[in-house]
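Review form for a predicted model. The reviewer records the input and the model, then writes brief findings.
Reviewer: anonymous (R2)
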Amino acid sequence: MEPQAQTHRVVVLALAGLLPFELGIPHRIFGRAKDPAGRPLYEILTCGLAAGPVPTDADFAIHVEHGPELLATADTVVVPASYELGPVHEYGRLTGELAEALAHIRPGTRLVSICTGGYVLAAAGYLDGRRATTHWASADHFQRLFPAVRVDPDVLYTDDGDVLTSAGVAAGIDLCLHIVRRDHGAAVANEVARRTVVPPHRDGGQAQFIERPMPEPQLASTTAVRAWVLDRLHEPLRLTDLARQEAVSVRTFTRRFREESGVSPGQWILGQRVERARRLLERTDLPMEQVARDAGFGTAQSLRKHVQAALGVSPTAYRRTFRESGTLTSPSSPSSPSSPPSLPSPDGPSVDARPAH
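Model under review:
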């Protein structure tokens, strides 16, 4: 029996005024991630600025067993949102107590924020010169307070390698699943998503806020055509094919699809093809040409181009890292670079949804 790799420790910093839902996200997502033998891949612990009760924004407090010294043992530190950040939120300055707590964090520790938890990372200087996000309603204030941060208000999360940030609430789930996927591959992340009953993957570049009117009762959604597409990812797919399934014009279909999903049909199809390629690379020994055909990329060259763009590594390197029967890379040193480039956006009515070969 192979020895189990050391469990990656995630420490969640609970600050006064925290949102209980967001505090629970890291425990739920990381706590569900297991290796093929059913052993936990992460250890999740919670600390406060002092051990003891921590008030929340609800009508109850939580009791934490650990003080800030626990941060010194973390491989990853997660800072959820809080509504009582005081001078951090008002002036972009850490309190003395919070600065002392963060000083426990070792160099090289991965840092993660959920929603307005990003204010803490920014006030500590961790986000200077980096791309970051927060809740869309706070983005303008965040940018004014921290001009050295490159704020992107239109995405669900950002990944800058050892520093990752997310928008509000559910985007924290997306980010934690992204981290599991980056650490241990799509199969592990998808299993966590299934057990948590959430979508297995929403790309970080997806819009975090889609403003749209209530649909008319007779207006059909695009759910059926998406299911139709998933059964045909290996086939050439054009926007005209998708619109025909809905019996509407390409323009109407594209608008409706974007309103519902936040991305164009072409972006969504490309993302689904990358996800299928991931699963095939992780679970099969199929040659690259066959993976390319089954995932809808047509050729191994096209597969390499799109996997490299989306994941930051070649298909061969991804397979070598994340084969279910093989040894996974250490979560503390992911093999892929951080923020993948945005996928191409084929929006126009005459654009082919097939990848370029």
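Findings: The radius of gyration is 21 Å.
Further findings: The mean pLDDT is 84.
Recommendation: see findings above.
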